[in-house]
Amino acid sequence: MRVAGAAKLVVAVAVFLLTFYVISQVFEIKMDASLGHLFARSALDTAARSTKPPRYKCGISKACPEKHFAFKMASGAANVVGPKICLEDNVLMSGVKNNVGRGINVALVNGKTGEVLDTKYFDMWGGDVAPFIEFLKSIQDGTIVLMGTYDDGATKLSDEARRLIADLGSTSITSLGFRDNWVFCGGKGIKTKSPFEQVSVSDFHL
């Protein structure tokens, strides 16, 4: 009986050692695979960082030529998200800055120095167009004018106001309708129509 018991103990120990060996080998393989995967990911991450495209001012897709201003604009989304106007990597107007509002949002910039001269918004739904007209008439020659709508920028917009904006280089202002999304960059004294203008027609008057 003692011999048989000893034999069983030896077998049990052998099985335990074999099991431990197999587990340890599998564990090592898994660890090696994990480390290899980790190193591979690390190499890929390093490569990704080294090939990451450069960031340009205001998040635009490429650098501006010398003696040019980098800018980016986004109109408001319905009456939920306000417009955003960025110039030379400085956000001039946005919901975060709490200086935008329903209607037409305007930023005036010195065309030579890039200095921000003024930022205002004019309610073209429930407001009066007269202050907006006076504001447009007061803009000095050589001023860059950036505009973006929020919610509705057209209901109170009179023919005179549209003409004054058209004189700044806009082509779409004459047909701007209720709740159209519109962004525009022009200038006082511009001799041609501005190429920096986009409009998205609202479903409300399609």
Automatic annotation (TrEMBL):
- Return the similarity comment: Belongs to the FAM3 family.
Keywords from the UniProt entry: Disulfide bond, Lectin, Secreted, Signal
Spell out the Pfam families in the cross-references: ILEI
Q: Where is the ILEI/PANDER domain?
A: 102-189
Query: Where does this polypeptide localize?
Result: Secreted
Q: What is the lineage of its organism?
A: Eukaryota, Metazoa, Chordata, Craniata, Vertebrata
Protein known as: Protein FAM3C
